[in-house]
Amino acid sequence: MSSAGVEEAGAKAGARSGRTTAGSLGGSLLVSIGLGYVLTVACQRLLPPQEYAVFVTFWGLLMGLGSTLSPLEQELSRQSAVAALDGGRAGRPALRAVAVGAVVAAVFSLALLIPPINDRLFRGDWTLGLIVLAGGVAFAFQFGTRGLLIGQHKVKPFSLLVIAEPAVRALVLGVLFVAVAYNVVSLAIAVAAGSFAWLLFARPARRLIDPHAEGDGWGVTSRRMGMLLVGAALTSAVITGYPALVGLLAPGDDGARVGALFAALVIARLPLTLIGPVQSLVVPFVVRLSTTDEGRNRLQRVLALGVVASLALAALGALVGLWLGPWAVRFVSGPGYDVDGWSVAGLVWSSVVLVPMQLLTAVLVARTQARLVLITWTVVTGTASLFLLFLPGDTVFRAVVALAVAPTLGLAVVVAFVLRNAPGTTSGAAETSS
């Protein structure tokens, strides 16, 4: 075969390999999302609203902590991939990054055992704080393991680990259901069990680490991970961890109403479950379009049209939520979950508005404007916190208004950043260079 034929065959094989990888990762992610969503709905059916309010606060804390630690996967995948280019393995900096994440998780979780905080979040049940501690520290190792695997292009074990996490939770939940031994604490244990799925893949991950290879020291690693973790924490506070934020800043006595509201929030957040894969597609799309003037103009038109369409869709979704929302919540969660139509309308508006907001922050990431991403999420989290603390009204009213207003303001901020700092403009160049 000629050299041209060999190159063409190699290119085709590479394309097939890329499609196989994308299909494997996409399939495992969809299975993981589906299992996770089914698990949250199952817990709604198993618990009365008042107990579910406590459980979903625990869920928000643990999953929010997991979202905060997720940059570990990105950082270790980077280190692992760079080492693989030289035929080596990730070294001590990878272990240091995981250690930093584990310490952050432990300190955060131990704070939940402080009596005033524990009373607000868990009504004095310190057992839930200990479960967050165990699951949070395990999350640091879980994301570290995932990063090592995908960094060395170990697609199959990585995909299996992505699926194993919710599968372990579902398995333990199934055992509890059959044994009729489910309550808030036992369901919390089932949720935390998924954080230990990495133990099934510890041996192959261990072979991807060289503990003798030197690199960045503790100071550099801590500073870099600190910035990444703070940004992720701000994001998770108004998405995954919002029930915990409400419990901490605006606790209320009506647990049944709050539990029903959080059940509605889980249902309304369905559009956000698929935003992660879409965000990963946005970055290369923006990079490609930003290389030419025509591409930049097209990008601006696409972004403007997308924002307008999202606002229209959010308004339509709010109307549907106002009309059908209470029925949908009772149908999915059970007859005991009674929520007002206006509450569902506000939650749907928030969920839809968060979609373009997250996609536009991905545009800033593609332009290497991470500082603006951090500012955007600081505005959103800060606004939500202020509304929860100082807005008159009960817990449900404050939670809905805060979650409707904060992402809307965040969308306005990120749109301003994207338009003002478009590549090719003076301000954009200055920001990128900084």
Automatic annotation (TrEMBL):
> Which InterPro entries does the UniProt entry name for this protein?
Poly_Biosynth_Transport
Q: Which sequence ranges are marked TM in the entry?
A: 21-40, 52-72, 93-114, 126-145, 184-202, 228-250, 262-290, 302-324, 344-365, 372-391, 397-419
Q: Where in the cell is it found?
A: Cell membrane
**The entry's keywords:** Cell membrane, Membrane, Transmembrane, Transmembrane helix
> How does the record classify its membrane topology?
Multi-pass membrane protein
Q: Tell me the domain of life.
A: Bacteria
One GO term describing the cellular component: plasma membrane
Q: Which PANTHER family does the record associate with it?
A: O-ANTIGEN TRANSPORTER-RELATED, PST FAMILY PREDICTED COLANIC ACID TRANSPORTER
From the Swiss-Prot or TrEMBL record, give the protein name: Polysaccharide biosynthesis protein
